[in-house]
């Protein structure tokens, strides 16, 4: 057995280079997050060339939940770019290498491929963004029912408890207020429990703390946290059990 | 929305089966890449149901589509990795068909695949 030869074949057998109008399309045996093969392009202009992505990578990553406005992600991206000698061309809206002589372009292939393979890791950092669709849906349903002026987000609702920020506050005409915590993870559940305990301890009137779960069958929240929440004074509701019922429940409790 | 150098795109809206649909049709002739992405409106966001694609770097015409109840699709992301599958499967990675999509025919292709009436031009 010639291991070097076998590994070399494993790398190269899946490598396909095809001429396209821009220069060359290079398909690799590495799997892209879409399930397709990871591909990139060599743009050739006269005697010079550079490697670039398909031009849809930024769009695809953003569409998959990667938030490039986040400082944390941009720091990771900047470090990936500099480690692999890749540039994010804002003008062209793509990732590319420097221009080099056409005959030197192959030497850039491996670092560029490594960059593309690694930039997919940004997808693992999108948990909060994905989770936030439930939160956003809940806010928009509450705004539709209570009118936008009655709904606010991230508010320290009680003056004497400035460190207890409520995720969603809904004020009703009756003078009662719903303090709503979407249960997106353990921390949000325990924050809700703490808030409800403080409300009780300080005898705060006319505030109804809610904990609204997205559903009860996913593992984002541990059983222990759920049990603590169910035994607290929080009013529970489950979004997947019926969005209208959840909104109606909030309405009834603050009437 | 922005796509990189060389891409042209447009968005089509239509209603069917009491649902609102949005199709993003995008083409890069210089990279021989075409995609028509079908999404269904879900509240203020979208559920992406299908990518209809031809990119000559690999494979022939293919789709990435949601299998099962489309209403179960995870909203707000391009690909629900749990429900989206590629169809058909290919025995060879190489693309064996010519890239015959143009800016003029891009919309016709999407209209034929998703069965909507075409009109208008690209951005």
In short:
Chain A is of the alpha+beta class. Chain A contains eight helices and twelve strands.
Which short descriptors sum up this protein?
heterodimer, A: 255 residues, alpha+beta, Yope Regulator, Chain: A, Trna Endonuclease, Chain: A, domain 1, 5-stranded antiparallel beta sheet, 5-stranded mixed beta sheet, 8 helices, 39% helix, B: 123 residues, mainly beta, 6-stranded antiparallel beta sheet, 6 strands, 41% strand
Q: Can you characterise this structure?
A:
The complex is a heterodimer of chains A (255) and B (123). Chain A is of the alpha+beta class and 255 residues long. Chain A folds into two domains: 3-124, Yope Regulator, Chain: A; 127-254, Trna Endonuclease, Chain: A, domain 1 (3-Layer(aba) Sandwich), CATH 3.40.1350. Chain A is built from eight helices and twelve strands. Chain A has helices spanning 3-13, 57-63, 71-84, 109-119, 127-146, 186-201, 223-230, 243-254; strands spanning 16-20, 23-31, 37-45, 48-52, 87-89, 94-96, 100-101, 151-156, 165-171, 177-183, 207-213, 235-238. Chain A has a five-stranded antiparallel sheet. In chain A, strands 8-9-10-11-12 form a five-stranded mixed sheet, with helices on both faces. The radius of gyration of chain A is 26 Å and the shape is elongated. The model of chain B has no long low-confidence stretch (mean pLDDT 89). By secondary structure, chain B is mainly β. Chain B is globular, with a radius of gyration of 14 Å. The chains are: A alpha+beta (255), B mainly beta (123). Chains A and B meet through strand 1, strand 2, strand 3, helix 2 and helix 5 of A and strand 4 and strand 6 of B.
